[in-house]
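Technical annex, item 7. During the second reporting period the consortium partners agreed on a shared format for inverse folding records so that results from different sites could be compared directly. Each record opens with the tokenized structure and is followed by the designed sequence. A conforming record, contributed by the partner at site C, is shown below for reference.
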């Protein structure tokens, strides 16, 4: 009986995954876009340790900025992907990093904007991270994470990278990797899961 319940739970607790969420297939399934007066700068996929765990893997990078200087408004661009889901609560997350690739390596130098990264679903902001000041040849790390309720159907997941300045040779490189989308079990499902695990444990105890 416990075995049947446990397998039923596996079919109920559906997990949805993004297509090419780790950029191992380069930018397959992702499209790029720019903001008004925004520039992508240099973009592509390269090996990088985005979450500072010592594990190097393919990551998307971008050096965003603006076409015309206007420090009061950010500009740049990003990547977008269409996803299909069942209805329910989902957790979206991603590892991000900013690297100040200053070719002159000026002591005490750096950049006053390591970049702003935003995660949106259907143009609704889920989470954001502002790297702020970043030292020359320094790398800073961050995480985007948020829960959101999605209706059954197709949705647009977007990552936006912006800065208040134009692009240059020392514009920080912004990285993103390990994008994840996981369905959150409903309370009733979680309760059934606990009951199923309890019955399994009990069955093993009385063998």
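Designed sequence (site C submission):
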């Amino acid at each position: 009986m416990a075995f049947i319940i446990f397998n039923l739970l596996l079919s109920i607790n559906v997990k949805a995954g993004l297509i090419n969420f780790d950029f191992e297939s380069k930018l397959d399934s992702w499209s790029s876009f720019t903001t008004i007066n925004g520039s992508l700068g240099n973009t592509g996929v390269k090996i990088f340790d985005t979450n500072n765990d010592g594990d190097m893997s393919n990551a998307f990078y971008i050096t965003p900025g603006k076409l015309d200087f206007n420090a009061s408004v950010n500009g740049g661009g990003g990547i977008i992907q269409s996803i299909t889901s069942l209805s329910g609560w989902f957790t979206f997350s991603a590892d991000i990093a900013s690297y100040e690739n200053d070719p002159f390596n000026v002591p005490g130098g750096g950049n006053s904007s390591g970049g702003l990264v935003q995660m949106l679903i259907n143009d609704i902001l889920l989470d954001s991270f502002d790297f702020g000041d970043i030292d020359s040849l320094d790398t800073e790390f961050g995480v985007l994470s948020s829960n959101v309720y999605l209706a059954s159907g197709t949705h647009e997941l977007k990552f936006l990278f912006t800065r208040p300045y134009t692009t240059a040779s020392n514009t920080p490189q912004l990285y993103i990797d390990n994008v994840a989308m996981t369905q959150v079990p409903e309370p009733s499902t979680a309760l059934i899961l606990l009951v199923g695990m309890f019955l399994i444990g009990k069955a093993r105890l009385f063998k």
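The CA atoms of residues 142 and 154 lie 28 Å apart. Helices lie at 2-12, 187-205. All partners now use this format for quarterly exchanges.
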